[in-house]
Each structure stands twice: as C-alpha cells, then as structure tokens.
Amino acid sequence: MDPRPFLAVATLLVLSASAASGNVAFQVHSKLKGRERSLSALREHDSRRHGRLLSAVDFHLGGNGNPSDTGLYYAKIGLGSPSKDYYVQVDTGSDILWVSCAGCDRCPTKSSLGIKLEAYDPKSSSTASTVKCDQEYCIYANNGELPGCKSDLLCQYNVVYGDGSSTTGYYVKDQMRLDRVTGNLQSSWTNASVIFGCANKQSGDLGSGEDSAALSGLMGFGQSNTSVLSQLASAGKVKKIFAHCLDSKQGGGIFTIGEVVEPKVKTTALVPNQSHYNVVMKAIEVGGEAIQLGTGILGLFDDEKHAIIDSGTTLVYLPGDIYDSLMSKILAKQSGLKLHTVDEQFTCFEFSEDVDDGFPAVKFQFAGSLDLTAYPHDYLFPISDNKWCFGWMSSSMQSKGKDVILLGDLVLSNKLVVYDLVNQTVGWVDFNCSSSIKVKDEESGATYAVGAHDLSSRAAQVVGRTFTWLLLIPAILYSLPS
Ligand SMILES: *[C@@H]1O[C@H](CO)[C@@H](O)[C@H](O)[C@H]1NC(C)=O
Ligand SMILES: *[C@@H]1O[C@H](CO)[C@@H](O)[C@H](O)[C@H]1NC(C)=O
Ligand SMILES: *[C@@H]1O[C@H](CO)[C@@H](O)[C@H](O)[C@H]1NC(C)=O
Ligand SMILES: *[C@@H]1O[C@H](CO)[C@@H](O)[C@H](O)[C@H]1NC(C)=O
Ligand SMILES: *[C@@H]1O[C@H](CO)[C@@H](O)[C@H](O)[C@H]1NC(C)=O
C-alpha cells in the first residue's frame, strides 16, 4: 500500500473572512496596465450591444467519485481570447473560480487524470483585464476595502486550506466560453465576461505530485456574489438555478445552469443566511430502522442537525455519535466481518458477495419529507478485488456550536441534484446520470434535452495509485481557536 497520505485538501478558508491577515494589495504588472481602461470600456459597450440571454448552459464533466479512482469531478471551461481550455474541480462548497496562471510558483503541470494542464496567461488574451482593489467586486469579495488600497493596485485573493495548502493570486476579468443550450442535445458557443482568480503561487498538496489528480483550478458554485453563477445571474444572463448529476458508474455526468423541467425533484428549503448549501436533517434510518440519538423520540434527532451539500467533498462526514450509531447498525447485519484500517483512516473489509445484498441501505430524512438513500454500492467503495472500505467518516465539524453533517459525492452521485437559489431550495431524485434531463430556455420558453458528458481519459485510469479524497469546505465550519 502506498504510504503517501491521501490528498486531504481540507477547509477552504474563504478569504473574505480574513481580510486583515492575508490580503495585501500589490502593484499592477506594467504590461497590462496601458490597455485596460480602453478594453474594459469597449467590452462593456460590446456586451450592451450583444447583451443576449444565455439562459441554459451546459458544462462538460469528467471524473468520478470513487476515491481509489479519480475521487473528484471536474469540468472543462474556456477562458480568454482566443479561448483555451482549463479543467477545474466543481465545488458547491466554495465561492470563486480560480485557475493556475502563467509563471505560477508550484502550480501543478502534470496530472494523473490524463488531461493537459494549461496555465492561463492574461498577457496572451486580448480580452483580459485586471481587477483593481478599489473596484466593487474586490470590496465585496473582501468584505470591505483592502488595507492600503490605492487605485491601480491589484485585487489579490488568497485561499487557505485546512491542511495548510493554499492558492494565492489576483483577480482578472476575461471572457468565459460557455455552451449555450440551443436545441435537444445541442449547444452553441457564446461568451460572457467573468471575474476569476489568477493563481501565481500554490503551496502544500495543491502544488504537488506528478501522480496526483491535479487540475488547473477550481470553480466554486457557492451562493456568494463572487461565484461565476452569481456573476452570470447579475448580468441578467441566467436564472440562479443549477443542477448536477454525477455519474459514479460511467464517470462524468450532467452539469447545467438553468431551470430543470424534467425530471421533477422533491425539494427542501435551504437554511437562510448560510454561505453554503445547508439543509435540515431530521433522522437517519439504517435498513428501515431509525438510529436513536440522545433522548430523541420516534427516531428524530433531539436537536436540529444541519447538513451541507458539497460536491467538492468526496466522502460523508458525520458527528462522532451519529457515526458510531450508524456503523454499529450497519455492522449488526454482518457480524462475521473482519474489519481492518487502511491508511490509518478507512475502515475496510473483504467481501466476496454482492454488497447490495449483504448490507443495508441508509436513508437520510430532511425537512419537507425529502429523503436521500445511500445504497451499499454508494457508501462502500472498492479498493481491489473483493476489498471494500466505508465512505462514512467521523468528524467534529461545527457551525454556530452545532454539529454539522457534510454530504459529499459519495451520496450525491447518481442523483440529479437541483440548487434553486431563486426559491432557496435544494432537491434531488435518483437518476441515471448517463441519460439526459430537460431544461428551459428562458428566451424562447422551449425545453431542450441536455445529455451527459464524460471527459475522463480511459487511458489515465491506472489501478493502484494514491487515493484521492477531497474535503473542500469553508473554515467557518470549524470552531477555530480564537
Ligand atoms: C467569443 O469571444 C472570442 C474572442 O473575443 C471571439 O473570437 C468569438 O467570436 C466570440 N464568440 C461569440 C459567440 O461571441
Ligand atoms: C448580490 O447580487 C445581487 C444581484 O444579483 C444584488 O441584488 C445584491 O445586492 C448583491 N449583494 C451584494 C452584497 O453585493
Ligand atoms: C438573514 O439576513 C438578513 C439580512 O442580514 C436579515 O434581515 C434576516 O432577518 C436574516 N434571516 C434570518 C432567518 O436570520
Ligand atoms: C419557485 O416558486 C414559485 C412560487 O412558489 C413557483 O411558482 C415556481 O414554480 C418555483 N420555481 C421552481 C423552479 O420550482
Ligand atoms: C442509463 O442511460 C443510458 C443512456 O440512455 C443507457 O444506455 C443505460 O442503459 C441506462 N442505464 C440504466 C441502468 O438504465
């Protein structure tokens, strides 16, 4: 077994929370300086002239949620003029898009995913401009003006992860290439101007390892105004609704912006005023029996539990007491099982029969009578022939003093998950993510089918490399020492 620790990218520290400590404005790079004013003026003029509704957008996905395979899902995006392709992780647990930039110190240049890692170079894009620290976006992204901000200083960003790895750079504005849905399984290229982070320095696991599942960046799909989704919505191009169907069987899946007409999903309300996608969890059943916690009656939790829906996290993290009850209920059905620990973190065992016959399904119940069932083939992942590990992890994450449950790709895969930020709901339904859904084109009112895509390179799927586990969650969840 490879002794290297798993790539555990933990705790996305959103910079706005630490403006005082991490952010400094710095001098603009002279090469870009001269032409910015005129370019941005031109672009604004252009976008007013061609200001058309994008409506539904189709992103192409690759990867899968199996930690012993890819362990993450990524999307291909196009940036700049001429447009170049970048592969970025899709993360509903964070709020900005950033990509590795030319000359970046310790940005990965090779990936085990068999994809080409391109570095974005603002100097080679005719539509690039930098964002200054006194601009509205910068002030919003940093919860106020950066200390020492003078006009012409760049707006810097800095994202720190709990394992100490980080990405730092500055914001740029450029054209993003988007596939507008124009017919059944049809799309056409269109552009939108977006602000994103240009990474000039990375450290820790983010910058390392030729054998790691490295990507060119990360696209945060959180609720904050800084996300690409919010930017497109504020420009009046899309409705603030998006959906993903992550296909853990075939790889890739469906990822769209726009109102989903088919299939219909049952929904639960998002907890108000949370930066991420929090919902209220009421109970958990294992093979039809509720797990009992505290003095809760009828199997309901005795206090309200929040669960966070996060596509940037691979596994599922449960508070210790819930984890213990869940595992003992599952293992009660398989008393002869010999458990062992792999890489000091994962509970694994040998099993030669069909796991779906041998283990119970786990059902999470949410407010609004929405539930989510994780079948054994979802929550167990194979590491080799007849060897399986549990994807449930015990954690002690808290939000406002309350335990938080983090639901990652392990249970979000093979479902259509719809995030409706207009109505402040999230919902899902079991779905074949290799098939297609129907979305609404707001301009014409027509509904069009959007199909699955899989960018994964088959050749890249080497058996036996390091596992990949991601945990992209905001630091705010942890009770940080004060
Ligand atoms: C998108 O932008 C590029 C570069 O500016 C341009 O060449 C292309 O024609 C644009 N495409 C559309 C559909 O606007
Ligand atoms: C975020 O954007 C929306 C429009 O999309 C706007 O109404 C709201 O005021 C913005 N919030 C902030 C804090 O800028
Ligand atoms: C959410 O925040 C808004 C503005 O800060 C406030 O008016 C509202 O009462 C808050 N809602 C809840 C449920 O806390
Ligand atoms: C959002 O809520 C409104 C009012 O309840 C409803 O008419 C609309 O259909 C909902 N939108 C979606 C996408 O469900
Ligand atoms: C899922 O959909 C694809 C494409 O329509 C189809 O080929 C496949 O058989 C379906 N899988 C299942 C399990 O129904």
Automatic annotation (TrEMBL):
<dbReference type="InterPro" id="IPR034161">
    <property type="entry name" value="Pepsin-like_plant"/>
</dbReference>
<dbReference type="GO" id="GO:0006508">
    <property type="term" value="P:proteolysis"/>
</dbReference>
<protein>
    <submittedName>
        <fullName>Aspartic proteinase-like protein 2</fullName>
    </submittedName>
</protein>
<keyword id="KW-0645">Protease</keyword>
<feature type="active site">
    <location>
        <position position="310"/>
    </location>
</feature>
<feature type="signal peptide">
    <location>
        <begin position="1"/>
        <end position="21"/>
    </location>
</feature>
<dbReference type="Pfam" id="PF14541">
    <property type="entry name" value="TAXi_C"/>
</dbReference>
<dbReference type="InterPro" id="IPR001461">
    <property type="entry name" value="Aspartic_peptidase_A1"/>
</dbReference>
<dbReference type="InterPro" id="IPR032861">
    <property type="entry name" value="TAXi_N"/>
</dbReference>
<dbReference type="GO" id="GO:0004190">
    <property type="term" value="F:aspartic-type endopeptidase activity"/>
</dbReference>
<feature type="active site">
    <location>
        <position position="91"/>
    </location>
</feature>
<dbReference type="InterPro" id="IPR001969">
    <property type="entry name" value="Aspartic_peptidase_AS"/>
</dbReference>
<dbReference type="Pfam" id="PF14543">
    <property type="entry name" value="TAXi_N"/>
</dbReference>
<comment type="similarity">
    <text>Belongs to the peptidase A1 family.</text>
</comment>
<dbReference type="InterPro" id="IPR033121">
    <property type="entry name" value="PEPTIDASE_A1"/>
</dbReference>
<keyword id="KW-0064">Aspartyl protease</keyword>
<dbReference type="InterPro" id="IPR021109">
    <property type="entry name" value="Peptidase_aspartic_dom_sf"/>
</dbReference>
<keyword id="KW-0325">Glycoprotein</keyword>
<keyword id="KW-0732">Signal</keyword>
<keyword id="KW-0378">Hydrolase</keyword>
<feature type="domain" description="Peptidase A1">
    <location>
        <begin position="73"/>
        <end position="429"/>
    </location>
</feature>
<dbReference type="InterPro" id="IPR032799">
    <property type="entry name" value="TAXi_C"/>
</dbReference>
